[in-house]
Structure formats: C-alpha cells, structure tokens
Hints:
Helix content is 51%, strand content 7%. By secondary structure, the protein is an alpha+beta fold. α5 runs parallel beside α7 and α8 packs antiparallel against α11.
Amino acid sequence: xxxxxxxxxxxxxxxxxxxxxxxxxxxxxxxxxxxxxxxxxxxxxxxxxxxxxxxxxxxxxxxxxxxxxxxxxxxxxxxxxxxxxxxxxxxxxxxxxxxxxxxxxxxxxxxxxxxxxxxxxxxxxxxxxxxxxxxxxxxxxxxxxxxxxxxxxxxxxxxxxxxxxxxxxxxxxxxxxxxxxxxxxxxxxxxxxxxxxxxxxxxxxxxxxxxxxxxxxxxxxxxxxxxxxxxxxxxxxxxxxxxxxxxxxxxxxxxxxxxxxxxxxxxxxxxxxxxxxxxxxxxxxxxxxxxxxxxxxxxxxxxxxxxxxxxxxxxxxxxxxxxxxxxxxxxxxxxxxxxxxxxxxxxxxxxxxxxxxxxxxxxxxxxxxxxxxxxxxxxxxxxxxxxxxxxxxxxxxxxx
Length: 400
C-alpha cells in the first residue's frame, strides 16, 4: 500500500499558492485493506475513506479506461491519466518526489490550461471546470486543443444532459474566483455559452447608448460589471446580482435600440427562470430579481421623491434586515463602474440611500404608539406618512 498527495494540493505547492486541503490516493490496496487498516468508508461511486486520525480523504486509485479493474492493480500513473487537466494530474509520494506523467509542471510554467486526454470527455462538467480555472488564473490561456474538445462536447449535446445541480455548483464556484468574467468568456470562446447560460449569451451583440456606455455591447458591459462586483465583495450572491442586473436588455424591442426602456421589469422572469432551471437557492432568485428591478432607481435616487425612496427601501426589506439592501447597493455600484472610462468614478448613491434609510428607521410603530397613536389599520398609514416626512427632512438637510 502506497499513499500519494494528488491534484490541487500538489499543483498549489508547485505554484507557491496556499494549500487548504490535501487529497490522497492509495495504490496497491482494496477497500477491504483500507477498512482493515482503520479507514472509514464514505464514498459511494468511488472508494473514498477517511483517515482514522487526521480525517483527510483517501481514495483508492482508479482508472477511467478500466473502471472495474482490481484496485490493488491500478497504478498511480493510471489514476493521474484519468484526471481532467494536466495541472491537476500530478502526485507527490511520501518522500516528496513529484510524479508528472502529463507535463503539468511545464503547463504551470507556461501558464496553460490543458486537458489530459480522451478521459476528459467522459464527464462534460469538466468543460465548466476548465472555464472556472481560467477565472481563477486570468493570466493562463486555454490550449487550443482543449477549446476544440470543449466545442465538440457541446456539439454532441452532452452539456444539456448535465444535472442542473452540478452546473449550479460550478457556476457559483466560478463567481467566487478572482476574475469571474473569464468563466463566461472561455465558455463563449468555445462556442458553448449559449448551451449552458443562454441568458448571458443573449446579451452579447445587444447595443447600448454610447454616451452612457462607451463599451456599447451589453455583454461586454455585463462582464465589466461582474468584475467590478468582484472587487467590491467576495460574496458570490452579490456577484450573481451584478451578473443578472441587465438580462432584460436582451428582450427589449430592437426598433428601440440602443435604448432599453422597461428592461428592468423584463429581466425579472429571466432571473427567476435561470435560478429555477439550475435549481439554485431561493436567496439568489430573490436578490437577483431585486437588482434587476431596482438598480435603475438606485442610480437615479437623488431625482426621486421621498415617497418613492421609501417604497424602494420597503421593496428591499430594509426595515427587517439590511442584507438585501446592502447587496442591491453593491451590485448597483458595480453597474455604475462597469463601464469603459467610469471604473473609478465616485458613486454617492449608496451613502444617500443609507442616510434616507437611517432617517426613516427612527420612525417605528412603537414610537407612534408611544406618542398616542391607536393600533389598527390607520397606524400603518401613519407610519408611512411619518417615514416619508423623515426622508423629506433628510433630503432637505442633505441638499442644503
């Protein structure tokens, strides 16, 4: 029985990146041998075991070319040749020697993301993994032959067969990477973005008013907004909000282009359908819809009357929790800065909205009751009126 560190921990060691988890592969053993040595089996599809002391995962070596082969006869080279990318197909033995049968170290040195071999195509989710790693390392290029294989997998219709939950998992991981826009750019470059995320693909080629959007193309703008959101927050939910804020622009009447009147409302159902199709959490749907519908109002808040500002705060649930409002404001700021030449512009709207919110929050149902108001239907109307007045006072004070 031999144990090897494999995959990401070896790759990250070579790259000089932090190592958060270690994965192990065991050769020369069977499941019975592992359990006899005290390891606890946890895997179903593959024989995965937990170390009795460290709790780290140890998997028996496997071979995609012969999945029913006796595990005790599978070599570490067999296992590595079954992996997705060369940079992930390396192992380190107990003496610190690196095994690299596919040239992973050279690809790291040359900053290339390359598939290992024919085994790559056996699981189409690997197409999304390539794009995700490209989002992690934006200075790495994807090998031409890998892009060709990704395109072939798409042409064969195999991406549509992926379980929605697997697509969503890779999607959210990609949103959390360093440059999430590259995830979509690589998929688009391979000709498969329309197969997995047709809502995003539909934005490319849709023009916008050049004076407000020097980048013109809505798809390009969306990628810029996404990367601005990545600078503002590590939260994938907020990055998702930024990604979907303008989905409605793909449905506005072409005769009206480059203007997009009503795109906010048009985007609501697209966001809902996207999250539901991929079976994502309700939070993403709620926040995405909030941003699609109200980001334009955030931009124009200083032109709005106090009553409309209050309705915006209520729609964001601001009097129950600040989380949804915070997400809306961050995504709107990313939208404002995700334009060519606007990246470093000031965006005072969040501070203004938070000031109006703080003023309105001072008026509560309890404060009105303490002042002599009677409980009942009239109390809600009074609460609204007093909060509008509080926001008006804030606006007057702010504007001098």
